[in-house]
């Protein structure tokens, strides 16, 4: 057993150092841990500090509540006497919150948790084969939309562009009200009634209108079952009336017609609807411009390819000249 | 070709023109008082359910039948087809609720007593136990989205009991022509909202106290004979 040797850099006696007769004894770099903690000599070789290992980028704790229940824009009793405090409270606190909680429970930790709500509704609809959490995502979106459609002291008449479009597409506000009533009463079961801005689209992959005009786009009244909304049909919703029974049963019992007419007379916020219309018209026209641009770009690409094909033919100059015989 | 269609219309027309009286439907009476099913279902719910909802279905069904009669007499195929959804909804509503009132019975008159006899054995055979059946119906009812019905059905062809759900007011036969309803539970919100608010599972748990198994047994024995 060789005697313990002293480390050249720190002077400490290290039992595991071995002396080789021809070499200077030196700590191996792997054993310098002791030097790093004990060395005080100025002549000590600069010791590379042990770099801390980069903490592995573990996924942070998944947020247990990717979606929060949006607060109402008014207090619970603000819509009295047309919609009682009880109804608003139960509707928001139990039904709306229930959907938010169910949605959070299902999507927590999945890739859907980072999506925007509207995107999630469209994705989970899955072209008519809805994923399990579609009902929750869609109902959260629908209810947010619904609360904002109403306001205390609502009612009155629409103005400006909205008024013009209503008169163009329905004839008058009364006609629109009649159509909404009809839709509500023929929505057999639970569902929603909507006024939507519809940019005329066929819903197939290449349905680009080559000559879009304001006349193609109309206001339409649509009714949807259960949790579906016209977002999935590529419409721009403007107003929503919840005709699930829980929305009106405590105030109107089975009289859905009365509820809808009071909604249109006393609860609706035409300002919000007008803003949504403005937004919808802007988005629709922007989208059409982009599509027109893309279509033109495609056409140009096609034209270039055609020109290239012509170039491939050999030009007369490319023919080799015949050599003259040397006489 | 045109001649042939004219000839066939002439032969059909007399058949269509024969006088047909339209049977209208009326709201059936409840075999018990509105408040007799408390505390499982409140009297207010029973009153509204019977006098308002069921009555509306009956009224609208009669209206739809009149319109159907007119459309059929005129030979208006488009009109006949357009009326189908109203007929299914209102007619289904009338049929389903008529069964529902028979499915309920006050506790004092035997509501909630478990089934004996043939139906009891069939339940044990097909579901294991009455508790298992109740659990299945409750879970299917709670999971039903929107409005609809949960049924305990007898499949006459296969001779087994099944638990089915139908949306909105679709009658049970839309799920299979050989299905006979033994028990139906209305899970539309109007059936429980005033009392249970949004807690449908509580309503489903409590309704078993007033379920009329005797009626279900009678229907079962009749249909499986």
UniProtKB/TrEMBL annotation, chain A:
| Signal peptide segment | none
Query: Known catalysed reaction(s)?
Result: 2 superoxide + 2 H(+) = H2O2 + O2
Q: Which domain of life is it from?
A: Eukaryota
Feature: compositional bias, Acidic residues? 54-64
* Molecular function GO terms recorded: metal ion binding; superoxide dismutase activity
Listed GO CC annotations:
chloroplast nucleoid
- Residue segments, region Disordered: 34-67
| Name of the protein in its database record | superoxide dismutase
Automatic annotation (TrEMBL), chain B:
| Manganese/iron superoxide dismutase C-terminal domain: residues covered | 116-218
**Catalytic activity, EC:** 1.15.1.1
Q: Which cofactor does it need?
A: Mn(2+)
Catalysed reactions, as listed in the record = 2 superoxide + 2 H(+) = H2O2 + O2
Q: Does the keyword Transport apply?
A: no
**Cross-referenced SUPFAM superfamilies:** Fe,Mn superoxide dismutase (SOD), C-terminal domain (SSF54719), Fe,Mn superoxide dismutase (SOD), N-terminal domain (SSF46609)
Q: What is this protein called?
A: Superoxide dismutase
Which species is this UniProt entry from?
Rhynchospora pubera
């Amino acid at each position: 057993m060789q005697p313990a040797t002293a480390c050249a850099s720190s002077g400490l006696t290290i039992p595991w150092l071995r002396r080789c007769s021809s070499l200077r004894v030196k700590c191996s770099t792997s054993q310098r841990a002791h030097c790093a903690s004990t060395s005080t000599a100025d002549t000590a070789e600069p010791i590379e500090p042990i770099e801390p290992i980069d903490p592995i980028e573990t996924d942070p704790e998944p947020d247990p509540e990717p979606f929060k229940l949006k607060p109402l824009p008014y207090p619970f009793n603000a819509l009295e006497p047309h919609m009682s405090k009880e109804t608003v409270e139960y509707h928001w606190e139990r039904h709306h919150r229930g959907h938010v909680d169910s949605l959070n429970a299902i999507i927590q930790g999945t890739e859907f948790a980072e999506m925007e709500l509207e995107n999630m509704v469209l994705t989970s609809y899955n072209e008519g084969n809805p994923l399990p959490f579609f009902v929750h995502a869609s109902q959260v979106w629908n209810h947010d939309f619904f609360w904002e459609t109403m306001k205390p002291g609502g009612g009155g008449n629409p103005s400006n562009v909205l008024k013009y479009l209503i008169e163009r597409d329905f004839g008058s506000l009364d006609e629109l009200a009649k159509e909404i009533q009809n839709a509500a009463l023929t929505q057999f079961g639970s569902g929603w009634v909507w006024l939507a801005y519809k940019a005329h689209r066929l819903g197939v992959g290449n349905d680009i209108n080559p000559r879009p005009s304001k006349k193609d786009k109309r206001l339409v009244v649509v009714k949807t079952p259960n949790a579906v909304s016209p977002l999935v049909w590529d419409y721009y919703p403007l107003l929503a009336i919840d005709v699930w029974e829980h929305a009106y049963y405590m105030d109107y019992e089975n009289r859905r017609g009365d509820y809808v007419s009071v909604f249109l007379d006393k609860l609706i916020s035409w300002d919000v609807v007008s803003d949504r219309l403005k937004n919808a018209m802007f988005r629709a026209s922007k989208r059409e411009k982009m599509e027109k641009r893309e279509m033109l770009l495609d056409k140009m690409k096609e034209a270039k390819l055609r020109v290239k094909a012509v170039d491939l033919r050999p030009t007369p100059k490319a023919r080799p000249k015949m050599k003259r015989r040397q006489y | 070709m045109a001649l042939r269609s004219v000839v066939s219309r002439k032969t059909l027309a007399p058949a269509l023109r024969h006088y047909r009286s339209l049977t209208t439907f009326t709201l059936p009476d409840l075999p018990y008082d509105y408040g007799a099913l408390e505390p499982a279902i409140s009297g207010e719910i029973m009153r509204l359910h019977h006098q308002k909802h069921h009555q509306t279905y009956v009224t609208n069904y009669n209206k739809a039948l009149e319109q159907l009669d007119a459309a059929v007499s005129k030979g208006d195929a488009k009109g006949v087809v357009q009326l189908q959804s109203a007929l299914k909804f209102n007619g289904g509503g009338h049929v389903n609720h008529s069964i529902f009132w028979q499915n309920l019975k006050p506790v004092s008159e035997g509501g909630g007593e478990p089934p004996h006899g043939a139906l009891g054995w069939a339940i044990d055979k097909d579901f294991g136990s009455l508790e298992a059946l109740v659990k299945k119906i409750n879970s299917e009812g709670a999971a039903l989205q929107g409005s609809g019905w949960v049924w305990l059905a007898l499949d006459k062809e296969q001779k087994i009991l099944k638990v089915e759900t139908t949306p909105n007011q679709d009658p049970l036969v839309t799920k299979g022509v050989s299905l006979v309803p033994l028990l139906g539970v209305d899970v539309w919100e109007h059936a429980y909202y005033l009392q249970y608010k949004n807690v449908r599972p509580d309503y489903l748990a409590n309704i078993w106290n007033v379920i009329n198994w005797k009626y279900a047994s009678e229907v079962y024995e009749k249909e499986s004979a």
